[in-house]
Amino acid sequence: MCNLIERECHLTGQFHRLAGLVKGYIEAVLFGLPVDMEEDYVLVRLNKPDAKAAIFEVFVEAIRERSVQSQVVRATGEVMHFSGTSGYEWSRSVYPGLKTVFNLVACDNEFETEFASFLDKASDVAAYAKNNLYTHFSLDYQNSEGAIRYYYPDFIVRLVTGEKWLIETKGVEDVEVACKDARAMQWCRDASAIAGAAWQYVKVPYDLFQASTAVTFSELIAEIAVKGA
User: Fold this and answer.
1) What is the residue extent of each domain of the chain?
2) In Å, how far are 11, 37, 166, 189, 221 from 149, measured between CA atoms?
3) pLDDT score of 65
4) Phi-psi region of 136 (alpha: psi -120 to 50; beta: other; left: phi over 0)
5) What is the DSSP letter of 82?
6) Which end of the chain is least crowded, N or C, by CB within 10 Å?
7) Whole-Å CA distances, 221 to 17, 68, 167
8) Which residues on neighbouring strands pair with residue 165, listed in sequence order?
9) Does residue 229 carry a pLDDT above 60?
10) What is the pLDDT of residues 149-199, one digit of tens each?
11) Residue 192, SS3?
12) What phi, psi does 60 have (nearest 5°)?
């Protein structure tokens, strides 16, 4: 049981501590009255699926609640510039972008290449950057299993109005997409409040983009707002 809880909550080196807590919970709380784990009838009952599930759920929920704490977001004073990104090798497709500080746009797939081309042609886009592991801009988020993961939004775009956008180009959606969307929107709210400049987030679905007749970024966002609702 302790191994299952440890694995589910992505804990390491906590088995002995967890074992003591589980034992205490079983003996004092689980059955509604004190019991002795050495008693045969208690051991038999603990082998039943419902008892195992009850212990598992209680501990996983408690650990997750204590592993993720809400904090007040504050500016660190540090400024990240994409122009400061060190050179890196890229084995996938590239696109010779015009409105970006990089000599080539490092794309993960053809959709990203097409989207970069769209941004170059859109008259209301002032600049953009393709984000990835090497540019070091990531958002920590809690995934569907409660673990902390890191998410790299695909593009960062600045409009001629000064408005800034985080953009995720999305083909197939998995169970983690909603978690990433929520985190990106929260980051934009926090960034807008701290920086005093408007940040927004949008997810661009592949099918919608392919069918779109938009020639500006604003037109594309309007289409997403209507068709993606």
Assistant:
1) 2-67, 82-227
2) 14, 37, 18, 20, 28
3) 67
4) left
5) G
6) C
7) 51, 33, 11
8) 157, 200
9) no
10) 888 999 999 999 999 999 999 987 788 899 999 999 999 999 999 888 899
11) helix
12) -65, -45
The packing angle between helices 15-25 and 49-67, to 10°, is 120
Q: What confidence tens digit (pLDDT) does each residue in 41-80 have?
A: 999 999 887 888 889 888 877 876 666 666 655 666 677 8
Q: Please give the sequence-ordered ranges of beta strands (E in DSSP) within the chain, or none if there are none.
A: 94-95, 105-106, 125-130, 139-142, 148-151, 155-159, 164-170, 199-205
C-beta separation of 167 from 204 below 8 A: yes
pTM across the whole model: 0.70
Q: How many other C-beta atoms can be found within 10 angstroms of the C-beta atom of residue 171?
A: 12
Compute the distance between CA of residue 187 and CA of residue 168 in angstroms, rounded to an integer.
14
Long-range Cβ pairs for the range 141-144 (8 Å, 24+): 141/179, 141/180, 141/182, 141/183, 142/68, 142/179, 142/183, 143/176, 143/179, 144/175, 144/176, 144/178, 144/179
Are 42 and 28 within 8 A, CB to CB?
Answer: no
